From TrEMBL:
Primary localization class, coarse: membrane
Membrane topology per record: Multi-pass membrane protein
Record-given protein name: Sulfate permease, SulP family
Membrane-crossing segments per the record: 32-53, 59-76, 107-125, 132-155, 186-207, 214-237, 257-280, 330-350, 356-374, 390-421
Domain STAS: 455-561
A GO biological process held by the record: transmembrane transport
Taxonomic source organism: Alloyangia pacifica
InterPro entries: SLC26A/SulP_dom, SLC26A/SulP_fam, STAS_dom, STAS_dom_sf
PANTHER family xrefs: SULFATE TRANSPORTER
Localisation per UniProt entry: Membrane
Source superkingdom: Bacteria
Amino acid sequence: MFDRVPGRRLAQLSPLRPWFRTVGRQTLGRDVVAGLTNAAFALPQGVAFAIIAGLPPEFGLFSGIIITAIAAFYGSSGLMVSGPTTAMSALLFATLSEMAMPGTEHYIALAITLTLIVGILQLLAGLTGLGALIAFVSHSVIVGFTAAAAIIIAISQLPGALGLSGVPQGDTPSQLLHVIEMIGEVHWPSLLVAAVTLGLLMGLLHISKKIPAYILALGAGSGLALLLGAETAGIAMFKPLTSVVPGLTLPSVSPGIWSDLLPGASALSFVGLLGAISIGRSFAYRRGERYDANQEIVGQGLSNVVGSFLQCYTGSGSFTRSGLNIESGAATAMSSIFAAGFLFAGLLILAPLAQYIPIPAMSAVVLFVAWKLIDKPMIRHIFDSERSEIFILAASFLSGLLVGLDFSIYVGVVISLAVFLRHSAHPVVASGAPTMRNGRKVFVNTELHAVPECPQIRTVRIGGPLFFGAIEAVEDELSRIMARAPAATDVLLSLKGVGKIDLSGADFLIKLARKIEGSGHKLHLIVANPAMLHDLARLQVTQIVGADYMHTHKTDAVAAAVHEADEDICARCSARIFHECQLKKGADTMHVTGPESSPI
């Protein structure tokens, strides 16, 4: 699991990236167009995400420049676009809002330090090869977490959209209750601006996703606010951006602050990596490309580390911007780098216009982003799947909504790992026998298909790891299967579906072999994997079972077992389910009810 090759670690940090070879004249043209389209989308999005995070608007824009460029440069996915995201912004706000007032200098300083810690944790994970561990966490955790984040975000933006001032801060249920209590104080001009912005945004996106709907909707909302008299009419407006060029920031090195931020940083690191790897892997699969999860983690970590020194806050892979990148014809990672450059140019040009954006209009945009954040098709799919996934989803959602987003991550991870271990501890144990299907003989589950079995041989397969946690379940199932068999039978145990075996698994096989041998019969093991054969020899299983009873093919095991079968029992048997049974005593006179002679 851990990567101990120093050369590989240096290659992960090398400025000479493998994707450079994919860049050419044809790709550059496509990447420029995709980058420009992405920058137009990221400009209002960055401001909205910064508001969700409780930070000045420029932090979202700087993150959309610095983090986007570095993550693309060092990441594994050429088409995934990173930067500020809704989920990361909401989780950062949930982590820091209890430590400091959002928007204050202390809050900003904590966000910068938190971003550095997140980057370091991610960088260490990538350099030590921990990317594979992400695959063990159910996707239902993130679906539940993001749904909770969406509701929290939406409730936090209601005061801005409704023009309510003085709404007390607090947990989500309390804040919603305060908004309901103050509903009679709604500022109608602010609500009108929010409604027009939201309606136009939804309409434009319904027409075409390539339309710069966010910019046009914000422009319409701003124009309406000016027509209504803006601040004289009581409509709150944005303050001018304090800077348009990222400045140098120095994260805190206080051990006390790091200790306080570490739990939240761990949750942010995990959410960021799970999101980025999921997006990057799905896009790589579509394009038939190789994907290196650990390299992606390194890219995410470096982007957050560098970003923490340049007025950025923690980011991750953005599914929306990544999808737009592909739809716009992006070919290489240069599309993200172009997007970062165009976003910086747009910031320089449009920064003076920020003061004309009404807060109700931006709140409407954030409300729409929150609604889109809820993955409704996936939620329906989860409810149609296993109950364990529904439980993981519900636990992550409710704990995030009622306790805290960072806590919901830990709840979801613990439950999903518990479910994984439970499944691993109950591998498939099934008996099989051959029967005719579509003119050929195949092995099927004897209990499901009610096919006849040999009275002297039981064929059983195990599907799943044979480790200490699974032994009890395997023993119970095997005992149940053998209870249906005559007292004395050979057992053909297929281990082809067993990917891993430990000392407890080996001891189980040894005890089983001795028990069967004590009844005058034999245990035959079917193993084809060289690594498994090596482990069985190392753990003394081969010596106890006997090399002659270790088979690489089911056909060989059946032939050996049938050859040793009792001739008198065979003479009275009418099943004759194996091809080799036709060579046993009585085959020429017995009326055979089993399948015709055919190789297994």
